[in-house]
Design brief:
Layout (H helix, E strand, L loop, with lengths): L2 E11 L1 H4 L6 H4 L14 E6 L10 E5 L7 H7 L3 E9 L26 E6 L4 H9 L4 H4 L7 H12 L5 H22 L5 E8 L3 E6 L1 E2 L23 E11 L2 E5 L7 E5 L11 E2 L4 E8 L2 E8 L2
Antiparallel strand pairs: 1-4, 1-11, 2-3, 2-4, 5-6, 6-7, 6-8, 7-13, 9-10, 9-11, 9-12, 13-14
Helix pairs in contact: 4-7, 6-7
Length: about 300
């Protein structure tokens, strides 16, 4: 399975998210603590900086190479500070059928659309779902799909449900996306565990979802097809604070939620000390935006 992160708040050096902390995202590609799998199928990122040209348009970086060996990414991470970041390392099951290409690297971003999405999980029997999902996706988004992943289809489906960018609109779009996936699975008789952890942002606000369809139901006809990642609920954590960086001999947010100016969301905590991190509940979604210099956070549980 994949690993991903979201950051929103005071500008932070990309190096302090991707490389330097104890369990930085790039470190998670080869040494994840909460998932005994490698993530070797590519890296992607969007980063927003107010001092850049056209600040509402993010820096964009995608590569199918291993980020731990990517000198271009490392050099960029040491120079850029961003107030909003979404980054993703892709993990796939080894198979000759898997396509390792830039078109399949997260996060996904359609032209002219501000919201971008990264996904951790997989939809069982996805190839069978495409025909019915296509009926639920708006034509302009269906035509924008370029890769072969279930994740990009989920992105197109989410955009097709989205009517605004406020808390209620985003939660409603997530709920409608899950309902559409659930309806298609029911029509096809699919009842196998399928994780849908989502990471979304438009550069001004962020959202995350920790969800799994039919958790605990696995294929029994071929035990070799049982994916290790499906045996436990995929993790998703967040922390609030300020001045994220090296403090007192460790990586952490300074202060606490009461004095926060930033929020960090990740598949697993980036720091060795996890006391300040909170795990998003199973079947939970969060939405966050910065108001008057402070992160405003809402959490909702879905059916």
């Amino acid at each position: 399975m994949c690993r991903a992160l979201l950051y929103l708040g005071a500008p932070v050096l990309l190096d302090d998210l991707l490389y330097r902390p104890d369990s930085a995202l790039v470190r998670q590609s080869t040494m994840p603590r909460m998932l005994h799998m490698l993530n070797l199928a590519g890296f992607g990122m969007r980063a927003w900086c107010d001092r850049s040209h056209e600040p509402h348009t993010p820096f964009s970086y995608s590569s199918t190479t291993l980020p731990v060996f990517d000198r271009n990414l490392k050099n960029l991470a040491g120079k850029v500070r961003a107030r909003c970041v979404i980054a993703h390392v892709r993990g796939v099951e080894y198979s000759p059928a898997v396509d390792i290409s830039l078109a399949n690297v997260h996060p996904f971003e359609f032209a002219g659309v501000r919201w971008v999405l990264a996904h951790n999980g997989d939809l069982a029997r996805f190839s069978e779902m495409k025909r019915l999902l296509a009926l639920r996706i708006r034509r302009e988004y269906l035509g924008a799909i370029r890769g072969s992943t279930d994740s990009e289809w989920i992105y197109a489906l989410f955009l097709s449900q989205l009517t605004g960018s406020d808390e209620q609109a985003v939660f409603a779009a997530l709920e409608a996306t899950l309902a559409a996936l659930r309806a298609v699975r029911a029509e096809l008789g699919i009842c196998v565990s399928s994780a849908v952890n989502l990471f979304l942002t438009d550069g001004e606000r962020l959202a995350a979802l920790r969800y799994c369809f039919d958790f605990g139901r696995y294929r029994t006809d071929d035990p070799a097809r049982l994916h290790e990642a499906n045996l436990s609920y995929l993790s998703l954590w967040y922390t609030l604070g300020r001045d994220y960086g090296w403090h007192g001999g460790e990586w952490r947010m300074a202060g606490g939620a009461a004095d926060a100016d930033s929020i960090l969301v990740a598949s697993e905590p980036l720091t060795q000390d996890t006391a300040a991190w909170m795990e998003l509940p199973e079947y939970g979604a969060l939405y966050a935006e910065i108001r008057n210099g402070r992160p405003r956070l809402a959490v909702r549980l879905f059916d």
